[in-house]
Amino acid sequence: MTAIIPLSELRAQIDAIDQQILHLINQRANCAIEVARTKQAEGETGSFYRPDREAQVLRRIKELNPGPLGDDAAAHLFREIMSACLALEKPLEVAYLGPQGTFTQQATFKHFGHAVKDIPVPTIHEIFQAVETRHCQFGVVPVENSTEGVIAHTLDRFIDSPLKICGEVEIRVHQNLLGKMDSLLGINEVFSHQQSLAQCRQWLNTYLPGVHCTAVSSNAEAARLASLDHGKAAIAGLMAAELYDLNIIEKNIEDEANNTTRFIIIGEQQPLSTGADKTSILVSTGNQAGALHRILGPFAEYGISMVHIESRPSRQGLWDYVFFIDIEGHKDDPDVAKAFQVLQNNVKLLKILGSYPKAVI
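Predicted structure:
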């Protein structure tokens, strides 16, 4: 039988280990400072954030992790260490769809860590503007939800924007009913973003039939409004509950158990190939017969997997559409480059929106 180790001895071991961890983290921080000096000496004055490098580091951590800590837990810890070290080099300013407490802010912290300067912006259009005018180095915008489909405002903004997609992050969306009250009794109105209302439609019809639902600009705004009136409730995340001091009346009220929203990171960077990448493109064919076949043919010819395709009006003419396509691979991978060369000759417009690492955590 294994002997029980006294608590005093275990706590002494933990204190000693914590001291070692702190020493090693600060060693890493000193290395980060030296990296910044070297980059500046070599004339690199742009963002010190490298999405390809960070994705490789996090993947390596997950591969090396011996447990018992889970791979994702280990990666999250290193995400925060990397975020704090990067802030010593040059703090990042990241625009997200505000106000505070939104899922987009949650996605920002998941991707960049909590050491960034997160800046709430009221609309997707203004997030693009903030990055295009270099008020922020990066922006985080929602692009699709597993239940409700694509976010049209995000796709449409890419038609004219020079920005690139340089990363992605997925958030498992848990919707919660929040309010000043403790139960469903007395609720006369529910606020939320229109996407969240749609994601909880069945639950609302079952448990709050006849209660008026009002769409607002964000879930965080819904929580703010619910905090002002005892008869009002909001559908939002747990961050919003904490921020606006609301009770969690019901948890996880989304209709689909695997409700997930994908966010993309927009900026001017073009990450290098990491071996596990996606590429997003915009294609215009004009209003021609067989257009879709000409788009898909080169990908089939070179064995490239297509992850997603979506059509949107081009706003250039009646029944003229553009296609947004996500594929596996990086634009510099040989087969992808060959497919793009063939595709270029088959379409009116091919715009590479970005090649970027697949989400790691």
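Summary: The longest helix spans residues 7-41.
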